Amino acid sequence: EPEVTQTPSHQVTQMGQEVILRCVPISNHLYFYWYRQILGQKVEFLVSFYNNEISEKSEIFDDQFSVERPDGSNFTLKIRSTKLEDSAMYFCASRRTSADTQYFGPGTRLTVL
Amino acid sequence: AQRVTQPEKLLSVFKGAPVELKCNYSYSGSPELFWYVQYSRQRLQLLLRHISRESIKGFTADLNKGETSFHLKKPFAQEEDSAMYYCALRGGGGFKTIFGAGTRLFVKA
């Protein structure tokens, strides 16, 4: 069964550095999402992406964040200048249509030192 | 404001006992409600959604619009049900999914 994949599984970075988290959604899916979960807190929506543009974003998704679908398979989340409070588990998700089930990746644990 | 509340952080029951994981929501409109489950060392996965009105792994959930609740129930808990359970909401026509804080279910032998 096809799955959403994410790399790396764990990323450690210094405060102020740029990081790119990578996701490969399921191949025939059209809607893509990023969520994050700070340790001990709830899963929070960051951004949704459809038809090569952001369709919705949360207040967390400020100018430090960006998303891209650079080719037909990858979906990336970039954090330009990481802060300590960006340390979290970042989940990618995709779905085929807006009514279908959302499938989650295994997550990337980002640690900002 | 859209909000999902799961009042219990941890629920511990014995095997064979009934389980009810509570979820209340706040949304001005007709939302879609979901339950997601995350087993140890596994990814988040959909357990069930209210529009399907189905039973998955013995779990059911009924949307009560009057009480704005979507409680998850199972008549006889099994040890393999031990996991983190998240109630979630998506607004009609919206893209984002709002999650509750989650309830850890621990089923004791």
Give a description of the structure.
The complex is a heterodimer of chains A (113) and B (109). Helix content of chain A is 0%, strand content 50%. Chain A is mainly beta. Chain B is an all-beta fold and 109 residues long. Chain B is built from no helices and 11 strands. In chain B, strands 2, 5, 6, 9, 10 and 11 form a 6-stranded mixed β-sheet that branches. Chain B has a 3-stranded antiparallel β-sheet with strand order 3-8-7, with no helix packed on it. A two-stranded antiparallel ribbon of chain B has the order 1-4. The interface between A and B is medium-sized, with 23 and 16 residues.
Main traits of this protein?
heterodimer; A: 113 residues; mainly beta; seven-stranded mixed β-sheet; globular; B: 109 residues; three-stranded antiparallel β-sheet; 11 strands; 0% helix
What ranges of chain B have pLDDT less than 50 throughout 5 or more consecutive residues?
Answer: none
Distance linking N and C termini of chain A: 37 Å
Largest beta-sheet characterization of chain A: 7 strands, mixed
Low-pLDDT segments, ≥5 res of chain A: none
- Please tally the β strands of chain B and state the result: 11
Q: Could you give the count of β-strands of chain A?
A: 11
Mean pLDDT of chain B: 92
Query: Which structural class is indicated by helix and strand composition of chain B?
Result: mainly beta
What is the structure about, briefly put?
The complex is a heterodimer of chains A (113) and B (109). Chain A has 113 residues and is mostly beta strands.
Question: Helices, strands, pairings?
Answer:
The complex is a heterodimer of chains A (113) and B (109).
Chain A: E1 5-7, E2 10-13, E3 19-24, E4 31-37, E5 43-50, E6 53-57, E7 65-68, E8 75-79, E9 88-95, E10 103-104, E11 108-112
Parallel strand pairs in A: 2-11
Antiparallel strand pairs in A: 1-3, 3-8, 4-5, 4-9, 5-6, 7-8, 9-10, 9-11
Chain B: E1 3-5, E2 10-14, E3 19-21, E4 24-26, E5 32-38, E6 45-49, E7 60-61, E8 72-74, E9 83-90, E10 97-99, E11 103-108
Parallel strand pairs in B: 2-11
Antiparallel strand pairs in B: 1-4, 3-8, 5-6, 5-9, 7-8, 9-10, 9-11
